[in-house]
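Same chain as my last thread, 745 residues:
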Amino acid sequence: MHLKIYDILSGAERSTGILRVIIASQGENSILAKALGKDFKGKISLLLYTCPMHPEVEKLGPGSCPKCGMALEPRDAVVDDDNYELIDMQRRFWICLALSLPTLLLAMGAAYISPSIAIWIEFALATPVMLWGAVPFFKKAWDSIVSWNLNMFTLIALGTGVAYVYSIVAAIAPGIFPAAMKTQHGLVDVYFEAAAVIITLVILGQVMELRARSQTNSAIRALLNLAPKTARIIRENGTEEDVLLEHVQVGNKLRIRPGEAIPVDGIILEGSSTIDESMLTGEAMPVTKSSNDNVTGGTVNQTGSIIMLARKVGNDTVLARIVEMVAQAQRSRAPIQKIADVVAGYFVPMVVLIAILTAFVWGFWGPEPRLAFAVINAVAVLIIACPCAVGLATPISIMVGIGRGATAGILIKDAESLEMMQKVNVLVIDKTGTLTEGRPKLTTLIVADGFEADEILRLAASLEQGSEHPLGAAIVKAAVEKNLQLANVKDFQSLTGKGVIGTVGNRKVALGNEQLLSSLNIDFNAFAQRAIDSRKRGQTVMLVALDDICVGIIGVADPIKATTQQALHQLRQTGMRIVMLTGDNEQTARAVAAELEIDEIEAGVLPARKSEVIKRFQSEGKIVAMAGDGINDAPALAQANVGIAMGNGTDIAMQSASITLVKGDLNGIVRAHRLSQATMQNIKQNLMFAFIYNACGIPIAAGILYPSWGILLSPIIASAAMVCSSVSVILNASRLKKITLGETI
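reply #2:
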């Protein structure tokens, strides 16, 4: 029924919001509500769940992956402190432990209990463990067999099932066994304690894994908890009222008092304060904000009381987008995971074959009692070979690594980008907003004789007032500071890589580079030399034309970010080749490149050309990262092996990129590279340990040491070793939480 309901819900209809409306209107006792099912607390499960290892697997409501048996997780990020599967597994563990320990003590021999009675007490104690405690594992094993996706639960079910069934037969009908297998009391050794203890240890491993996976989502929960539950809204009549956060709408005025978290994204209308933006940038130093400055939901107002205007609420806020990016990335799979998948696909059938061969060899050539040795050693092989450590090796490191990146202001869209980042050997960088502050200031305004400088500035600013480009914003800001009255624009056109044109009043205005004026057949020779001189000083120069006549130049300087020089030095030390591509003039570009010691540049580049340059590097076998912040960078960001967007850039750039640097400086690339290296090294350590463990454990479990040393591996010890292998992988992955990425403290 889950599948049918899921199939009829497509697109937006799959959203949990619509399902909540359906349930609310029909009631929790409706057919739909009953079909969807209820969780442990009786709440309707309305979320789509997916598998961390197999993201293509989706199911309405919690459950297990039919391919690997891992617990499914919500596809959408939610704050859920009640981990129902963990609670269930913990309950199973304590009950099974209480039953398994006396079973083990009885098997070790109790002088005051008859051996025949002890066997039936063992049976009574072990049966609830097998028929209740082990039920989740047997269900997953059955699903794996039906779908032919054999996994660790297949081996667990086979091993414990064989030991339990063999013991029942031995207890009920000992007479069918040869005399060599019987004890002095005429009984046959049973292995109820092995089956029960193994299941208990496996449950313990599941508890530890679920706890670790819950902790890997701590970054998401911490981000979600940053947003306050309520906001103080200022009504039109001046009254103030605390309302739930979901009731805040765009356009509402909100009061933020000292010490309170800012509820949504917006702009300050009144007051000034210092804002703690460490959740956003990783920087501990608070930032001073005042009227007309932007503020972000989840950041903390420290000193003054401010009034803000809500501009983005709900899923449109920066915090919500960060949470969604982190959640999606943690569900994605790195290419290295394919190696583990391929190995696991062959590994389980091979283990079953080895267990059968082990039973065959011990059954025909082993010492008496041969059948007992055959069963126990085959069970030990099945248990110790469980590939849970292999399955955990990659996803647990990816989840921890991406969560660590989120706390350092590095938002990684998918696991493939995290893996690819450490392979990057060419870094292509845009200039404006990436190397520079992206907040240029007007520094030069030269006009032809007969024209007023303020009038030319007014017309240029009027043309640029609708533009998102930082150069245009500098012109508008300069005009506003002079209290110039801006006019409306008609027939506005933005020509990417060239400039803008439009009609202001009754004047046809063009503002841009030489390519723009050339395309309009406008002569600009009178200002050519002055433009060159300004560019040599590191200014970006725009030519202004009125009614097809060039009337002046506007020079804008964009200061280089304070962190750029050091970041580029550190990136060069990793062996990266730095290339600057910019749509700016070559003289301006070379002035910036000289200051930053960048040897390879290409100026006057249109968006299509940026993509072509990246393709050329890729055709040479290079792994290319592209860092940019503007709309014109979006094609190149999408083309690069790793697209890196500055968090202070445009939405389109961030959507096209695979990594977003919240703070928006190149130190974030250094951190991302270190994080990628540390995560991939961690994954390789996990995989190496898991494979070495299985390569050594299986032969020992099969009895290879018995002929020379008389050593056999008990199934119980094999189970404990299997759990330890998984725990070691989890602990190793957890080290990523503490790696130093170079954040400013």
